[in-house]
Amino acid sequence: MDSEMVMKLLKEQARKGKLVIVIIHQPSSDIFKLFDKLWILDKGGYPIYNGNPIDAVVYFKTMNTQVNAAESECRTCGNVIAEQILQIIEAKEIDEQGMPTNERKVKPEQWFSRYKEHILPKLKRVKWQTALPPSNFNIPNLLEQFIIFSRRNLFSKTTNTQYILLNLLEPPVLALILAYFSKYSLSDDYVFADNKNLTVYLFMSVVVSLFLGMSISAEEIFKDRKIMVRESFLNLSRLSYLNSKIAFLFVLSAVQTFIFLLVGNWILEIEGMTFSFWLILFSTACFANMMGLNISAGLNSIVTIYILIPLILVPQLLLGGAMIKFDELHHSLTRKIYVPIIGDAMVSRWAYEALAVEQFKNNLYEINYFEYDRQISHAAYQSSFLIPRLERRIDKVLENIEQGDTSIARKDIRTIKNEFEILGTIDGNQSLNRLSDFTIGYFTESTKENGLYYLSSLKRKYQTLQNDANEARERMYAQLIDSLGTDRIQQIKDKNYNKGLANLVQNRDELIKVLETNNRYIQKKDPIFMYPDSKIGRAHFYAPVKIIGSWKIDTLWFNLAMIWAITALFYLALITDALRRSLHYLSRVFRRNKH
Prior knowledge:
This protein is mainly alpha-helical and 595 residues long. It folds into three domains: 98 residues, no CATH class; 215 residues, no CATH class; 189 residues, no CATH class. It is built from 21 helices and eight strands. Strand 3 and strand 4 form a beta hairpin. The protein is elongated.
């Protein structure tokens, strides 16, 4: 009955003027009668019949000189036995024992000769035309295709209730679990300032964004592969198809990260950070969307896709800056000055740093004092840490030269010269007039006294700057007390300033405040208050700004730009199908080497 229904649907198309070509095996009598024309090809591609299906029975009976050649149907039931046509064509020779052989009585060439003699002359010739007939089918433009693909994608998702519920309930459930277990308090009354687990929540939020973005995109293109093969003859735009997928996933990621933040920030009582946090987590999820689409387009099995996901996510977790400090990576990966290149390649690093810096720097309490705290920290480091070390270094140079330890003296002089050059370029300081005297051959008691005098004047300068900044901070505090009151200021601090995060971004738990490496003194004290000295955007972790040329760009916006730049690279890889092409090339090389 299903076969008959299909044939009736095709017959309906034929009545509407469509040309329907069907290859069928062992049709029933009713189905056989539905055909308007029958075309039989014998072995070797020889045409042996072309005409009315019912007349085919009579034709082959006549060619076979059967007694009832004029009968095409059963006299009793009216059925046409279509198989008898093939039985006549495939009739075998009989040997001396009366058994059929493998040789046909009539060869395909003979049937073809009869076809040319009896059927071909009667066929109506069709005028040959090189031009295709006019068609009312036009391929939509790129925008229309994007809209069609988007609507189809949206309808397919909205009709899947399980898909909608899972993707809308997963973010709040994850936020509830994460925020509830990380809501630490010293007493029964929760105080945001005392929550030691805020940094864990921030990093896990990045992990959740990566996971959500990857999970909703890893199968998107793979599961459409059969549909795309069926539609390939239409020459539709792959770019419109991909952009429709990206647009849908970006919208879904925006909703998921917003729901996650609403629940998580509400439980942990994080105030004033929803929009900036959402920008960061949404951008992170969009990167994960693009990565998921790449592996969905490039791999050829679901199993392979889900095997690859941990290989992608684990480096993001390990090199995000929270689990392992960048200074504590393998010595070949880090120079201690900036975040290593391998860390800069991780979106998790940019996202987590942006969350931590934004929460500390721009919360409702610290935003009033941040610039003063930065000036105090900078001046205190110069006067209390860097300059005393340089003074001791200069004291030892002449002593080492006199004792013949020239290698140690040269190392000391290189370090002193490097630091003097940096000191001469920051804060408007003037370097030594005769820096060239800092060599083994010219280093004298006069050179030593000159260097110590220069450092002494700088120390006084930075002590004055520290005092001035302290006084300015006290004036700001007094103004806030006058306008808001002491209790209100303390309340704002408790609700916005987290001590655990402050300890982390100021590196208070690290005993080493100054690290010597590569003939440089590297500041490890208060990274959140330290401006980077690179002019191309490189920086230490938790830097408050990034510097491009003469521009100081806030960490939030610079890190967001970096996340989207990496996302753009993956978008380029997606539209060029780079992963699939690369894997195909590698597999060919592997097979060639194997043979």
